[in-house]
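Table S5 (text form). Sequence records supplied for joint modeling of the two-component complex.
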Amino acid sequence: MTTVGAEYSMSLDGYIAGPSDDVSRVFAWMFAGDTDLKMSAGDHDFDLKVSQDTVNHFEELMQTTGAIVSGRRVFDVADAWGGKHPIGVHVFVVTHSIPAEWADSPGFTFVTDGVESAIRQALAYANGKNVGVGGADITQQCLRAGLLDEIQINLVPVVLGGGVRLFDAFGPVELEIVGVREGKGVTHLTYRVIK
Amino acid sequence: MSKVIFENSVSLDGFVAGPHDSPDNPLGDGGERLFTWYESGDVALPLPGTDMVFMISQASADLLQHEWNNLGAMVAGRRMFDIANAWGGHPPGGGPCFIVTHHPPDEWLMEGSPFTFVTDGVESAIRQAKQVVGHKNVALSSASILQQALRAGLVDEIYLDLIPVLLGGGVRLFDHLGPIPPEMEITRVVPGMGVTHLIYRVIK
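The corresponding structure-token record, covering 399 residues in total, follows.
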């Protein structure tokens, strides 16, 4: 059974990025653990310090994820991940206009006819593996369209007071708690979306 | 050691009441969903001072029982006092109750009233409550009172009962906290039935 899932680090007041897209505080837990985890995006390496539990989680994510659907804003803010997403899979970018400098990149497919089409294409590409969704706006669109199966929230004990909200003015949506795991400076909460 | 604590159900998107809340609709649209976990388990736990009985998981019951055993007094806002109809004279917890208001209501000023009306603000109400609780805790009762107390640096612990629902609007818990929001650390996580209890210590 393949799932369409989203994973975010989120503040207690619901932000996945602070003012000016600052993610230092919501990602601080990724540098607070005792186990090394090397991730890379393009030519850039990130040396993370996480728990063994998180290492296991990332390894599972990389093995089970077959494609990613991303919003254009995330794609731009992340600078196209230097050409290669950290999870190492093909990314379907939902956009109105195709960026010329990446149009021929083998790592990306630009989808101009909406999020449902992008999910459909990503599921076909993933060929039995799962699809990850990235970006608050895309996640909300997937929730509205009934396309999202799972959400993992890495809840961090900070209040940001402004920034990019993950869930904005959309509900009610019923969820089911699938898993609760404690980390250092973070609580990993996994939910299934009830449709 | 006496602490100032806050405990409430909150949706995953951060609301303690749904949209369009009013005295006639105190929990807002769909807000009653935040409290269905009170009937989600098989362990009976009577709420002191009331005739309410929670039916919850053993893990939730152990946590709440401990919290209630240590409850010395409550500080509530006037809006909640009015919406709850003064809890019929029996505020939850059964201890003394300090109501922050500009205009104390005459009908509750009699001898033996469980309520003390505080007209000079939340800080004063918490100070007065602390004087009567001994080593027990002072509980804050609404988002607005919590926000004022957080801004004043008076809150020690926050108990969130995180509910797996997105309400999409309503009364936000962590709002109006000013330019320097509080720093917190996680002290405990307790999975319940249809609820996840998250306990945070406010770093001062």
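Note: Chain A touches chain B through 29 residues (CB under 8 Å).
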